[in-house]
Specification:
The protein contains no helices and eleven strands. With 124 residues, the protein is an all-beta fold.
């Protein structure tokens, strides 16, 4: 079972930026799509972004397009989420997950090996 650990969350003012990291154990990281999901207070967990195993294909939720960028460095077994122009509604616990295949999707059911989450709080 792949182990994932998120980091980089914190408190930031609206309009600011944060970069989240997700470090994976083992040497099979590069064979799978990776995704980011989030859960805000009073909300259901929702899809944020995903990236193919080679990094050539990315998909984003409409709410974050143009503001967030997902990337990966397979040599470091790490996936990133660069978050710019943050809004208070981006406040949530952000989770990293490994896909079940190489192709990225927007469905939680296509991901497994979830991390523990990292808190992102955006103030007005």
């Amino acid at each position: 079972q792949v182990q994932l650990v998120e980091s980089g969350g914190g408190l930031v003012q609206a309009g600011g930026s944060l970069r989240l990291s997700c470090a994976a154990s083992g040497r099979t990281f590069s064979s799978y799509a990776m995704g980011w999901f989030r859960q805000a207070p009073g909300k259901e967990r929702e899809f944020v972004a995903a990236i193919s195993w080679r990094g050539g294909t990315t998909v984003y939720a409409d709410s974050v397009k143009g503001r967030f960028t997902i990337s990966r460095d397979n040599a470091k077994n790490t996936v990133y989420l660069q978050m710019n122009s943050l809004k208070p509604e981006d406040t949530a616990v952000y989770y990293c997950a490994r896909g079940r295949a190489a192709v990225p999707t927007k469905s939680m059911t296509d991901f497994t090996s979830w991390g523990q989450g990292t808190q992102v709080t955006v103030s007005s």
